[in-house]
Write a structure and sequence with these properties.
7-stranded mixed sheet; 15% strand; Aspartate Aminotransferase, domain 2; binds pyridoxal-5'-phosphate; 5-stranded mixed sheet
């Protein structure tokens, strides 16, 4: 199999054991698998046959876990019911009550809520700090994990993953990265020494805004622990959604190529627009490009309500990474759970708009966005 990412991402169909030569893995839409006899039951527990019950394992969810492991160049992976559940089982594979996590303070809002509310309730202590400055000083006796995102949401800070790995090695800590915004098309954190890489597959892997799914990849021992959490907490993904996500992954490369090109054009076009206070767009992520999210702050120079009313075919949503260009309003949606002082400190203002640049014609995206800004200009 070709080792180029473009080839790898197309060839993610799992080797079949059924003997039926289907080109694509069929959807195993079943809650359970049958046994021939007592010996066959025992064979499941000795590892001589696969599959018992879909919460425990299913060919379609296995296929998705393996596909993403393949793209991230990691040994193994598992699929879960959502990005957040993948984050949860990944963290619980490393941390238990009494342990401490150092997390970046500019995380995705849902992740912040999981860490700040739920994990804290389970007795896991979390410090939210600037990963540019304060990681080392936040590490304590009971710290076990450093948690951050390869490209942060919504302000698109690019994490220095080599630095995170170096600090973790020095203090014997595990590392976990949310690679949702970058995708392995741009960044492959496992190859840089990160222990666990997590994705909201709801986003670029699915790519069509029609599934909710998560994937976690890493070494066999950590993934086995995370898999046990997935089974015991019931965080499994449905076979159909796993199948749709694998289908999406086959076009990840071509979609990303267009997404990234269009985003570069839009960021350039908005840089000097008189209704824009500031454009957030990474300077450099990888040779493949800088991602496909562009955030703009229009607090002082435009009216936010007018802007959101003037977007024509561009939809307002609380998600990203579909083939269609869309905008989100973080302060009212994804980052609603952050405390007021964190929002201010992070620059998530009442005029911040996150644009998920789609795969349409770049000129159409630029002209529609420019027109909406012209109309909203104060
Ligand atoms: C959407 C998102 C999540 C959460 O994923 P769900 O699939 O909605 O559970 C986590 N991290 C990032 C960066 C996201 O964009």
């Amino acid at each position: 199999m070709g080792h180029n990412f473009d080839t790898k991402s197309v060839h993610v169909t799992m080797e079949k054991k059924s003997g039926v030569p289907t080109k694509v893995t069929p959807i195993h839409q079943t809650s359970a698998f049958t046994f021939k006899n007592l010996e066959d039951i025992e064979n499941f527990y000795t590892g001589d046959r696969d599959y018992l019950y879909t919460r425990v394992g299913n060919p379609n969810t296995d296929e998705l876990g393996q596909a993403v492991a393949h793209l991230e160049a990691a040994p193994v992976g598992i699929a879960t019911s959502s990005g957040l559940s993948a984050i949860m089982v990944g963290i619980l594979a490393v941390a238990k009550a009494g342990d401490h996590i150092v997390a970046s303070k500019d995380l995705y809002g849902g992740t912040y809520a999981l860490l700040a509310n739920e994990l804290t309730d389970l007795g896991i202590e979390v410090s939210f700090v600037s990963f540019e400055e304060d990681v080392t000083s936040a590490i304590k006796e009971n710290t076990v994990l450093l948690y951050t995102e390869s490209i942060t949401n919504p302000l698109l800070r690019v994490e220095d993953l080599e630095k995170v790995v170096a600090i973790a090695k020095q203090h014997h800590l595990k590392t976990m990265i949310d690679n949702t915004f970058a995708t392995p098309y741009l960044v492959q954190p496992y190859t840089l020494g990160i222990d666990l890489v997590v994705h909201s597959a709801t986003k670029y892997f699915g790519g069509h805004s029609d599934i909710t799914a998560g994937v976690l990849v890493g070494d066999e021992d950590l993934i086995a622990k995370a898999k046990a959490k997935t089974v015991n907490l019931g965080a499994n993904l449905s076979p159909f959604e796993a199948w749709l996500t694998v289908r999406g992954i086959k076009t990840l490369s071509v979609r990303m190529e267009r997404h990234v090109k269009n985003a570069a054009k839009l960021a350039e076009a908005l840089a000097n627009h008189p209704a824009v206070d500031k454009v957030y767009y990474p300077e450099f992520v990888s040779e493949q490009g800088n991602g496909a999210i562009v955030s703009i702050d229009i607090t002082n120079k435009a009216d936010i309500a007018t802007f959101l009313d003037s977007l024509d075919w561009i939809k307002i949503v609380a998600t990203l990474a579909g083939v269609e260009t869309s905008v989100s309003y973080p302060i009212a949606t994804s980052h609603r759970s952050l405390p007021e002082e964190s929002l201010q400190e992070l620059g998530i203002t009442k005029g911040l708009i996150r644009i998920s640049v789609g795969i349409e014609d770049a000129e159409d995206i630029v002209s529609t966005m420019t027109k909406a800004l012209d109309q909203a200009k104060k």
